Amino acid sequence: MKNPTQAAPGASWSRSTRFLVLSLPLLLLFLLGELAGRLLERYAGYFPRRAASYAEGNPYLRTALIPGKRFESGPFHVDVNSLGFRGPEMQSPKAPGTFRIFAIGESSTFGWKGVRSHSEAWPAVLEAKLRAAHPGRAIEVVNAGVPGYTSIEQRINFLLRISHLQPDAIVIYHGNNDLTWSWVPNIETNLVYGRGESIGPPSRVARVVDYSYVLMELRSRMDLFSRSTNQKHDLPDTTAIRVLRDNLAGLVGDARRVGARVAIGTFAHGLNEAGAPGQYSDAEKALGVPAVGRWFENLGPQGARRSFPVYNEMVRQLATAERIPLAEPARRVPGTPEYFTDWCHFTVKGEQLMAQIWFEMIEQAGWLRS
Asked: Quick one: CA torsion of 166, 172, 177, 180, rounded to 10 degrees?
């Protein structure tokens, strides 16, 4: 029988000792999480959100790739050249006779999730195809995609950086990030002030978070949860799409003013445009379509399904009005896990098909004919 006068275990411990003992299980779980993250990174292709490792704040673009930066995460590699573009070094001014194409876009151009290195992203694959088809020609396809960019940032990027690097042509591929402007109140004004606060140098706390896989995952989950709690719309925002059309038309005009040829592409995705509310195909489930409301601040899954075709039809009309070549990834890339890692980023096979689509368009347009 227990002696009522006997002290409970640990009753004589100091407050700091009790705190330490109680914290040990949490510390152990944290360390196991860090270990699991690194093992997944090394052996299972887990790619944590560590964009801060190769990007930094920019007063005009919110964020930009860090020139000369090399980032490694397990099998993933990001090499940024000295001019701030993903991929190998490029000459400025360019070598005589070089035909230089800039691939302008977002993470789906930059290469994300399914892309382990620059050489697997569709701009590099496109360059290889063009060089093979035109032996003896000096051809460059510069990957000007930046994760998170919309056509708004890319228009500024073109004016401040690309226009001075002697582009002979640009190919424009935007869509997923552009639709984040859907149902933003007073969109014309908000376009002036941007999509939030400027991104500056990371604080000490941010640097610690970026070093920890557990803290990065928690930060990501909290951000997605915050977006998921917003009011969601199930219809396209035609006002936002009209404003984005004007911005894309401005980019076309900016390129023409420096003598560059222009082509544009519709945006490929893994959403069933005819899907019923709350019903998802097996492919959509595998690609995370039911969770798109955690990405789009104001669009739910049904709103995204309805918005992509309206956006793509706008791109087709713009190509006709501006008399520029049109690529049709939206009609040619199957919306299945064979080609997509989620609803908008490509597998290696998807990247290769994208390169083929752009290659055929450029050949048909005759950009490289003598």
From this structure: 110
Question: What would the two tokens of residue 253 be?
Answer: 């005009």
Tokens of 274: 């005819």
Asked whether the beta carbons of 67 and 80 are under 8 A apart, the reply is yes
pLDDT digits (tens, 9 = 90+) for 98-130: 999 999 999 999 998 889 899 999 999 999 999
- Give the residue from 358, 322, 366, 362 showing the smallest Cα distance to 105: 358
C-alpha separations of 179 from 46, 98, 116, 210, 304 in Å: 27, 35, 26, 28, 8
Six-digit token string for 54 = 């190769």
Q: Of the candidates 172, 298, 319, 321, which has an alpha carbon nearest to the alpha carbon of residue 227?
A: 298
Residue pointed to by tokens 């552009």: 178
Amino acid at 168: D
Q: Cβ neighbours of residue 216 under 8 Å, at least 6 residues apart?
A: 48, 49, 50, 209, 210
pTM of the model: 0.85
Peptide bond into 309 cis (omega under 30): no
